Amino acid sequence: MSATRRQVLGSAGAVGVGIVFAGAVSELFAGTGPAHAAGRGGYGPLVPDPDGLLDLPKGFRYRVLSREGDPMRSGEGPVPSNHDGMVALAGPGAGPVRLVRNHENRPDGGTYRVPAVEGLTYDPEGRGGCTVLTLDRDGEVVDERVGIAGTAVNCAGGPTPWGTWLTCEETEDKAGTAGYTRDHGFVFEVDVRPGRRTVPEPLTALGRFQHEAVAVDPRTGIVYETEDAFDHPFGLFYRFLPDRPRGGFGSLRAGGRLEALRVPDVPDLSAVREPGTRFDRVEWVPVPDPSARETPVRLQDFGRRGVTHAQKLEGCYWGGHRGEGAVYFVSSYARGSEGSAADHFGQVWRYEPRRRRLTLVVIFGPDTGVEMPGESPDNICPAPGGGLMVCEDGGGAQHVYGVDRDGGVHPVARNARNIGTVEEPEYGEFAGVTFAPDGRTLYVNCYTPGTTFAVTGPWRHRSAVTPTGDGR
């Protein structure tokens, strides 16, 4: 399916949308809950917010749950800066929802660091980490505290089937660099369940590289990982085969085997231009040195046939597909001028583990007439009952978009603070888009100044839904 720039710009409420894409979009959408994607045209035009924060369609409302600099309810310090990846985890039974939120604080960035808390701090010189918001049945914040501290550049991550959060460091800095006392570039497991406590130790077997996001196969426990590298040679798509596949908190510390994707005769995924292109029986190559003691993983010697690279591998999630599970991952953009084989504004790929099949599902641009990376998809998540939510990462006005089953692109939210600007790309970037377990509330972050929103409204619902696939 495809949409022209004229068609997209002519859709209700799509003023400023520059996305043009093609692909078998319906392939993405296997329902996992009661809400479902809007039909063509979405939810209607975005209505200017009189408070100048968040423009939404008519009938939708937002609440600000948290702002950087405000005191956390725990008394541990101010809310940290640079809100990034996030997940909404269900409490036991019908218990409270817990939002686990990353803070992508670099050594020299972010006004407010994640406070160092005894027993939760990996490296006292690391400014990043996670915070945890506990919401009551009415969606009000009743607690806000540190989940893990002393990590660095916590970008995205992903939930586990056993109810924890894997937070990813998007850096390769070693001890002695930028003042750090320990090596960075790892994945950490954050446990927010009552009576549990996070162990601030890296999951070293999952590799040390510029992690972005992860997704876990609930049947096998295999962890899929993206590497966000914008410079050549670009990042890799990985899988980690755990020694303790049954899972549970701490199981990933038992070790396992890290492998990188190889698509025969395709050294760079950006070269694939036709949606629906399918590669059967792709290969997985053992990573020589997952800890990258001397050489970054993507630069290591994988043998004569090599591995497959891609620029800016970012969002990643597990979803259902025709009754079987699949992992979806995003290449945010590719630029030939920076070493990619071809240009695009974003790709969404699907990998089906049982078939060892890789398919290009969606490709964005670049024939929109808008300079990259204006429409680059970044954080991405499935809507609970079918549909896709995409956080835009570029200059100018910033949006959360919905992509529906018919291939329509519609704006769901717009940062009202930076409409019409082109020089504040970091201010209004959205991140961490995720739905509540019941599908009735969308949570999303504004990166900086860090703000967490809860969006409610007339999300379309089905009277009776049988979940398909494995969900997330």
Automatic annotation (TrEMBL):
Domain of life: Bacteria
Pfam families reported for this sequence: PhoX (PF05787)
Record-annotated membrane-spanning stretches: none
Name this protein carries in UniProt: DUF839 domain-containing protein
